[in-house]
């Protein structure tokens, strides 16, 4: 059975690139346009991983991670932050919120897929 990954990014082109890479590697992909939209999609269905941008309208990625981690069904879902932010302070904030990995844009799909495969249990 394919593993499902939620991709949260306000950029349609980023969602498309990430989605193509993930689907090419055999994953199912769900998409959300910002943190608020992503939270609405956390409806109890099984997600194996979440990939989220940091800077988004309505609800930023760090706030989204904090909110997602409060939900019992998603408390242990690994989250990768995919962002243009590379400062250590932002990374620390993301880790404190519960993010497991930090991939800086522009990214190479193999680099992102390597992070994904490390975090998704077989």
Report on this structure.
This protein is of the alpha/beta class and 122 residues long. It has a single domain (4-119), classed as 3-Layer(aba) Sandwich (Rossmann fold). The chain is built from 5 helices and 5 strands, in the order βαβαβαβαβα. Strands 2-1-3-4-5 form a 5-stranded parallel sheet, sandwiched between helices. α1 links the parallel β1 and β2. α1 (12-24) crosses α5 and α2 packs parallel to α3.
- Tell me the CATH architecture: 3-Layer(aba) Sandwich
Shape: globular
Average of pLDDT: 95
Secondary structure: helix percent: 40-55%
The low-confidence runs, each spanning 5 or more residues with pLDDT under 50, are none
Q: Looking at CATH, which topology would you report? A: Rossmann fold
Number of strands: 5
- Count of spatially separate domains: 1
Structural class: alpha/beta
Lateral arrangement of strands in the main beta sheet: 2-1-3-4-5
Record keyword descriptors for this entry.
about 120 residues; Rossmann fold; 5-stranded parallel sheet; globular
Task: Summarize, please.
With 122 residues, the chain is an alpha/beta fold. It has a single domain (4-119), classed as Rossmann fold, CATH 3.40.50.2300. It is built from 5 helices and 5 strands; from the N terminus they run βαβαβαβαβα.
Write the layout of secondary structure elements.
Layout: E1 4-8, H1 12-24, E2 28-32, H2 35-41, E3 49-52, H3 61-70, E4 79-83, H4 88-97, E5 101-104, H5 109-119
Parallel strand pairs: 1-2, 1-3, 3-4, 4-5
Helix pairs in contact: 1-5, 2-3
Protein name: Response regulator
InterPro entries: Bact_response_regulator, CheY-like_superfamily, Sig_transdc_resp-reg_receiver
Domain Response regulatory: 4-120
């Amino acid at each position: 059975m394919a593993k499902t990954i939620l991709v949260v990014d306000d950029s349609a082109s980023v969602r498309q690139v990430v989605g193509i890479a993930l689907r090419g590697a055999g994953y199912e992909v769900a998409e959300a346009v910002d943190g608020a939209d992503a939270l609405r999609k956390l409806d109890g269905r099984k997600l194996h991983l979440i990939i989220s941008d940091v800077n988004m309208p309505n609800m930023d990625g760090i706030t989204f991670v904090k909110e997602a981690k409060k939900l019992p069904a998603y408390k242990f879902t690994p989250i990768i932050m995919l962002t243009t932010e590379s400062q250590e302070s932002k990374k620390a904030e993301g880790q404190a919120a519960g993010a497991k990995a930090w991939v800086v844009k522009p990214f190479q799909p193999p680099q992102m897929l390597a992070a994904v495969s490390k975090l998704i249990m077989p």
